[in-house]
Amino acid sequence: MSTASTQNPVILGHSNQNGQLRGPVGKPAGGQGSGGGSHQTQQPGQMKQASSTINNGTGPSMFSLFFEGWNLTLPPKDMRMRTSDVTATKGNEFEDYCLKRELLMGIFEMGWEKPSPIQEESIPIALSGRDILARAKNGTGKSGAYLIPLLERIDLKKDCIQAMGIVPTRELALQVSQICIQISKHMGGVKVMATTGGTNLRDDIMRLDETVHVVIATPGRILDLIKKGVAKVNQVQMMVLDEADKLLSQDFVVMMEEVLSYLPKQRQILLYSATFPLSVQKFMNSHLSKPYEINLMEELTLKGVTQYYAYVTERQKVHCLNTLFSRLQINQSIIFCNSSQRVELLAKKISQLGYSCFYIHAKMRQEHRNRVFHDFRNGLCRNLVCTDLFTRGIDIQAVNVVINFDFPKLGETYLHRIGRSGRFGHLGLAINLITYDDRFNLKGIEEQLGTEIRPIPGSIDKSLYVAEYHSENGEEVKL
């Protein structure tokens, strides 16, 4: 597996609110642990970056493949084990959907070899033009499920916005737009634009003065651009709501209704999410025409994520976290708190313990949020402390441990938090620090999600959450 440097290009002080903190140089507190040694020492080049494979050094990081006359540059093959969340397919291939050759080239260069279950169910229906209501687990390929048919239906002869993807957070908008750009790069000029709140409106207006085919946006900003007459959506043929339950909650539903009022009557609407409350049902009944319903949620939690709780007092939480850092084999971790203030306080504590740490929350300046998201995604730091801002759709393959420093109150929030690990059928660990006040909430969430959160053992088996364990031992676990 490739390595990533932990030397940040620019690390400002805590008072600068840029979300990047460094621990003191040298060995972190805690030393070697009994669970496989300390894997938290922040030395340059030691941390494993988000990568689609485990590189054993026998070949280059990229290689060229001449496939049916196509000269493709593919990422290394992903040798990590995967659970049935993504492997229980019908055996379809992307070629079966009669996609444009140029789109297929982009799909294969992303390292997507075969469609996941949600992609198998969704892509042919979306290509037919039908509305879709789809439920699938976090991290099982929902973005590809709607971006592939969306791009296939783009007509490059038309210089107008033809498709929109609406997402609830700025970070998710940047992530989805980047995937869209990557898989469309051979298509000869598909123009993709991300537009979110917190950025310069004038820049967006100038960008929309040029050709744009696909817009990935947060609700408030796209509505603002539509109302100003800058974003002309009268020829939009497809609108996707990713994380639809959040977009149709009280926070956004009024804006979503208004955005929809500007679209042509004959348009396709695709709704994707892991959870679907009554608000989604109401919206579906009002605006979708005989939608095709997909439900791949026989169980709610990912098969590859093992869940534990540690019973602690509030004062013991930081000590417990320090112990986890020293004993777990962490590739990257995301640590959740219930408020922005607690995020910053905990990040400062972690840096004082000797561990490099980033933090992110909604009250930060947008450029700092973008920087933290980009740098953490690229493996420049092992630990990220955040609020629930980071629970929606964020896909960072290297994250194998999620820690709920503060336990959430809602089962839906818990589900989205732990879904940050174990992405695309891989292994992950979710550890919850539970106080006396959380005890009933823990039981309630177990019952609501139909899952088991077990007491944390003295030593956690590496095979439960370390991908390299299976690769090194040639084992495959079927979950």
From TrEMBL:
Q: What is its main location?
A: cytoplasm
Q: Where is this region: Disordered?
A: 1-55
Location of the Helicase ATP-binding domain: 123-294
Q: Which Gene3D superfamilies match?
A: P-loop containing nucleotide triphosphate hydrolases
Give the UniProt subcellular location, in the record's own words: Cytoplasm, P-body
Keyword field contains Cytoplasm: yes
Instruction: List the EC numbers from the record.
Output: 3.6.4.13
Q: Where is this motif: Q motif?
A: 92-120
Question: In the UniProt record, does the keyword Protein transport occur?
Answer: no
Positions with biased composition (Gly residues): 28-38
Q: What InterPro entries does UniProt report for this protein, alphabetically?
A: DEAD/DEAH_box_helicase_dom, Helicase_ATP-bd, Helicase_C-like, P-loop_NTPase, RNA-helicase_DEAD-box_CS, RNA_helicase_DEAD_Q_motif
Q: Where is the Helicase C-terminal domain?
A: 304-464
Q: Where is the composition biased (Polar residues)?
A: 1-20
**Keywords from the UniProt entry:** ATP-binding, Cytoplasm, Helicase, Hydrolase, Nucleotide-binding, RNA-binding
- Catalyses which reaction(s): ATP + H2O = ADP + phosphate + H(+)
Q: Where is the DEAD-box RNA helicase Q domain?
A: 92-120
Gene Ontology CC annotation, any one: P-body
> Which family does the similarity line name?
Belongs to the DEAD box helicase family. DDX6/DHH1 subfamily.
This one is known as RNA helicase
**Species of provenance:** Salmo trutta
